[in-house]
């Protein structure tokens, strides 16, 4: 039977976790599916471990660390199913999760992009399956400390989407790449993930482009996974620098010059406000490395040239690299 959904994972030195993620995805999914794992140059034996554990999945050795955006694009190109699911390698798929996404997407094609509900290993809700949109107001709240002081406030921490437990169907600004389903036709019309992003921010950009094209990203609470969070990043300081680089890249690629300049000032002000902590002290000291966004930030944070994309190139020219897609009229 031909697969209806392609499950795409990108791994980097997470051999045991990725094997377990694939195992749970296979066991929990009744919908006919294919699984493609793109390994981003791991040195922990990930490709070998995956091939030894499974003889019915595709393992693509990227030959180096392409980053998340280029990695998933490569994985999608090596799949054939009409629906595509992005799944983090540090996750456990609970029974019926992907089936629920598929069923909801087929019943509600107008949404275009679909996310789920993530739990922490202790069973608590992990809000990172979706986020609010980054705005000047949300950045002002970050810069002044209001988003930390009033954590989970819909007014002063708007990107958190308040205290909503991700337990109802809701339209959201950003579905994260931890668990994201879309139709292949939508993926291709949007041009996939923007490979200027290395890690963090690419899913916010993808959701923004989807909304600009008329789609309405949505969270499906019956699609529940457990997420260990941060399996491929270790240093908290460098990880937060990458998060900030992702945010800066969104500003550089999607905001007007005046709003971008103010947004970057607010991002740096927020880092300075928190700089007494070791993590944020690193972010503040390395602000010149991340504030230009990717691909500059990749070279600055990791050393060497910018990461090659899945087609072997490096820097992409500024501006949109994809044609605008438009959802069908209802």
TrEMBL record:
The residues covered by the Glycosyltransferase 2-like domain are: 7-126
Could you tell me which Pfam families the record lists for this protein?
Answer: Glycos_transf_2
Q: What is the lineage of its organism?
A: Bacteria, Bacillati, Actinomycetota, Actinomycetes, Micrococcales
**By its UniProt entry, which PANTHER family does this protein fall under?**
RHAMNOSYLTRANSFERASE WBBL
Which protein, by its recorded name, is this?
Glycosyltransferase 2-like domain-containing protein
């Amino acid at each position: 039977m031909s697969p209806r959904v392609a499950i795409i994972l990108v791994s980097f030195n997470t051999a045991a976790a990725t094997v377990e993620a694939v195992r749970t995805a296979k066991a929990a999914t009744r919908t006919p599916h294919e699984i493609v794992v793109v390994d981003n140059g791991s040195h922990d034996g990930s490709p070998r471990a995956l091939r030894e554990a499974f003889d019915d999945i595709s393992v693509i050795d990227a030959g180096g660390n392409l980053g998340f955006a280029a990695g998933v694009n490569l994985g999608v190109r090596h799949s054939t199913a009409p629906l595509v699911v992005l799944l983090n390698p540090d996750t456990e798929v609970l029974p019926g999760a992907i089936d629920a996404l598929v069923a909801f997407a087929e019943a509600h094609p107008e949404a275009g992009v679909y996310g789920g509900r993530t739990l922490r290993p202790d069973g608590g809700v992990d809000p990172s399956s979706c986020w609010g949109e980054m705005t000047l107001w949300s950045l002002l709240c970050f810069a002044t400390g209001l988003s930390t002081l009033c954590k989970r406030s819909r007014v002063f921490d708007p990107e958190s989407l308040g205290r909503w437990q991700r337990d109802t169907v809701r339209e959201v600004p950003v579905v994260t790449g931890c668990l994201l389903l879309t139709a292949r036709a939508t993926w291709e019309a949007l041009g996939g993930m923007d490979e200027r992003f290395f890690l963090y921010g690419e899913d916010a950009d993808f959701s923004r482009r989807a909304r600009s094209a008329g789609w309405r990203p949505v969270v499906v609470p019956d699609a529940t996974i457990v997420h260990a969070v941060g399996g491929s990043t270790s240093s908290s300081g460098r990880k937060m620098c990458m998060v900030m680089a992702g945010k800066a890249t969104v500003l550089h690629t999607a905001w007007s010059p005046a709003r971008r300049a103010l947004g970057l000032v607010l991002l740096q002000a927020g880092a300075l406000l928190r700089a007494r902590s070791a993590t944020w002290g690193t972010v503040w000291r390395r602000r010149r490395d991340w504030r230009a966004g990717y691909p500059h930030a990749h070279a600055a944070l990791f050393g060497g040239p910018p990461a090659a994309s899945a087609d072997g190139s490096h820097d992409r020219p500024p501006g949109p690299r994809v044609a605008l897609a438009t959802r069908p009229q209802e």
